[in-house]
Description:
This is L-lactate dehydrogenase complex protein LldE. The protein is α/β, with parallel strands linked by helices. 51% of the residues lie in helices and 15% in strands. The chain folds into two domains: 2-117, no CATH class; 122-237, Rossmann fold (3-Layer(aba) Sandwich), CATH 3.40.50. The radius of gyration is 18 Å and the shape is globular.
Amino acid sequence: xxxxxxxxxxxxxxxxxxxxxxxxxxxxxxxxxxxxxxxxxxxxxxxxxxxxxxxxxxxxxxxxxxxxxxxxxxxxxxxxxxxxxxxxxxxxxxxxxxxxxxxxxxxxxxxxxxxxxxxxxxxxxxxxxxxxxxxxxxxxxxxxxxxxxxxxxxxxxxxxxxxxxxxxxxxxxxxxxxxxxxxxxxxxxxxxxxxxxxxxxxxxxxxxxxxxxxxxxxxxxxxxxxxxxxxxxxxxxxx
Length: 239
C-alpha cells in the first residue's frame, strides 16, 4: 500500500527517532512510504492562540503539499492531525479551499488506527521486556476517539507488561500554548501526572503524542526518575 508520511514539526526537529521508526515500521508492514517534501507546520501554535486568519496561508500551503496524491496520510501525532482535520472549518468562507481541505482531512490516519484497522495487524513482532504505563493523550483519545488501538498493539509486544495507574486519562498539562500561557497550572498538572505514574515504578512511559512525552519526560528527569520515555513507534520497532 502507498502512504504519505506527515512528520510534524516536533518529529522533524526534536524527536527524529520517532519519525525514523514510524517510517521503518510502515515499510516493515508492507507500505511504500512517500514524504511530501513541501509539508510544513500545521499551524497549531497560531491556531491555539487565536490567530486563525494569520494561520490560513500556512494551512493552504500544507493542503497543497499534501495533494500530491490521493493516498492515506499517516500521522504519528494526534494533536497535529487534529489541527489539519479542522482546516475545513477555518476555511469555510472560501468554499473551494474548504473542499480541498476536507479531502486532505479525510485522508489523515493516526498511525495506530491505520495499523490495526486498515492493515489489519495487531502483532507487529515487537519485543520489549519490562513494565510500562501508557499515557493516552487528550488529542488522540478525546478529539480523535483513538482509545483501544494503541493498547491493542502494546498488548502484543512480547515481554511487555502494561500497568494501570491512577487517573490515566487526565491531561498532562501540555496543551500546546497552554503550558506557556498557564505555566503554573500546567506545572502542577504534570507534577500530579508523574506522581501517579511513579507510584508503580514502571520501566517505560509510552505514548503516541510526542508533545505529551516531552512534557512528562521533562518532569520525570527533573525529579530524577529513571523511567525511559518512548513513543509507540519506537516500541513497535523494538526487537
